[in-house]
Specification:
- This protein folds into 2 domains: about 200 residues, Kelch-type beta propeller (Neuraminidase); about 180 residues, Jelly Rolls, CATH 2.60.120.
- The protein is mostly beta strands.
- Helices cover about 5% and strands about 45% of the residues.
Length: about 475
């Protein structure tokens, strides 16, 4: 059904064959899919007036309780064996994880901090998919709550709505559930959870009341919904770091091809002339931010506004990662000075070079700088690429691409010059691309192409961050959009 924006539902697809229930819906690649019971099919809406089947029942799995898009694929949670299923993108389901223990049902799926989780029954457990082929238990039964009916990420924490006693549970991010809000009246199940205007809502049964969770005792704030309908609950949870984290350190950075939202992790303003600026324990700072925001940060950003303490026209910023001073850095630069443009390629350096900053031969107070974007700075599968954009005030502009020939996750960054010091007052900022503002993210599990189809109407200017490798046996290949 489709809401008419006024007061009624309008049917846009009738029943397909013997499918009695559409238990779940998801949008993927700009199309609407539904998971069914009692035949465990995956259906695709034609955008007009009908369903069509794109994956039939797999084995004995009769119910697709939830659908979730994760890393560019559709996954389904099932009953009666509690499998995790993956759609092959064509015409069939495949098993991504078989039943674990005695859990017969996985009611809900949630992509949280880069991992895929499922809430189970009859043991009320929280499972995490290992990305290879198995469920792994990360939280056992809590009290008498035998069902986890719903999951959500709220204020950077994972919450579950339970069955039997309609508790709101909070996962400790390690190995256990804790109670966030107790049962409201005689309500038995929290069937759905949603965040709207920074407030957590829950749809419950059986009496059709509207419940507000208030740290943590629930109170009924509306009644009169017909029996069998699901009331709506609201919850707020006090976190001292939540009230200020978003308002104090978020900026936008121009990468040369668009604007990216950046969450600042650390800022250093020099109080004396300094040879090297170091950002250490980057992994710790990123993990702390991800814990607050409920995100998985992937892209590192550095912003520099600096000058030299010597009588030079310019000097180029240099940097190394993880104290690696070996010949593991390559650079390609495009340089503009006045009306003259040039290019430079250097390999096997013991540092990466980027844009230039001015010395004291310029006018008083002249500084320069720019930004560095390091896509996928924290994975351990690929070399690290650095995209630099900046220059020495009006005297010079640089666009630089560098590669660090290491698959290590970046934990330390040292920024220095050829033989000079940065002058007092120079400022260096370290941050990550703020994943909360990204519309869509895809990480290919197999060779293929990408399609972003969740762009909302009126989105305005768009920026894409891509870090890719072609399967062609060639030095490089153009990206077509």
């Amino acid at each position: 059904f489709q809401w008419d924006d006024a007061a009624a539902w309008v049917e846009v697809a009738p029943q397909l064959a013997a499918e009695a229930d559409i238990l779940s819906l998801v949008v993927f690649d700009g199309q609407l899919y539904g998971g069914t019971g009692t035949n465990g099919n995956l259906l695709l809406w034609n955008g007009a007036d009908a369903w069509e089947s794109v994956a039939p029942q797999l084995g004995a799995q009769s119910f697709i309780h939830d659908l979730e898009v994760y890393e560019g694929r559709i996954y389904g949670s099932t009953q009666p064996l509690g499998n995790l299923q993956q759609w092959d993108g064509s015409a069939a389901w495949t098993v991504a994880a078989p039943q674990l223990g005695a859990e017969t049902t996985v009611y809900d799926l949630l992509a949280y901090r880069g991992e895929l989780y499922g809430g189970t029954s009859p043991g009320g457990r929280l499972y995490r998919w290992d990305r290879v082929g198995l469920w792994v238990q990360v939280a056992p039964l809590f009290g008498a709550e035998g069902q986890i009916r719903s999951l959500i990420n709220f204020n950077g924490e994972l919450f579950g709505g339970s069955g039997n006693l309609s508790n709101l549970l909070r996962w400790d991010d390690v190995s256990a559930w804790g109670q966030a809000a107790a049962q409201s009246g005689v309500e038995t199940d929290v069937l759905s959870l949603a965040v709207f205007n920074n407030t957590l809502y829950g749809g419950t049964e059986v009496l059709g009341t509207l419940v507000a969770y208030q740290n943590p005792a629930p109170s009924v704030i509306a009644t009169g919904v017909a029996t069998g309908e699901h009331d709506i609950g609201v919850g707020t949870f006090d976190r001292g770091d939540i009230s200020t984290y978003a308002s104090t350190a978020t900026i936008a950075v121009n990468t040369g091809a668009g604007i990216l939202p950046v969450r600042l992790l650390e800022e250093q303003t020099l109080t004396a002339d300094t040879a090297t600026v170091t950002f250490s324990n980057i992994d710790t700072a990123v993990a702390a931010w991800d814990a607050i925001a409920g995100t998985t940060s992937r892209h590192l950003v550095v912003v520099v506004n600096a000058g030299l303490d010597t009588a030079l026209a310019i000097d180029q910023i240099r940097f190394t990662f993880n104290s690696d001073g070996g010949a593991n850095y390559n650079n390609q630069s495009l340089i503009g000075v006045a009306a003259v443009a040039s290019a430079l390629r250097t390999d096997g350096l013991v540092f990466a070079a980027s844009f230039a900053v001015p010395g004291t031969t310029g006018s008083g107070g002249e500084y320069g700088g720019g930004s560095l974007l390091i896509p996928h700075a924290f994975n351990t599968t690929n070399h690290k690429s650095v995209l630099g954009f900046g220059g020495a005030a009006e005297d010079r502009v640089d666009v630089v691409v560098s590669r660090w020939a290491s698959a290590a996750a970046i934990t330390q960054l040292d920024i220095f010059l050829f033989a000079d010091n940065y002058t007092a007052g120079s400022t260096f900022q370290l941050g990550v691309v703020d994943e909360r503002y990204l519309i869509e993210e895809q990480i290919l599990a197999v060779d293929g192409t990408l399609a972003f189809s969740s762009i909302p109407a009126g989105a305005g200017d768009l920026t894409a961050v891509a870090y890719l490798r072609t399967v062609r046996a060639a030095r490089n290949s153009n990206i077509d959009v």
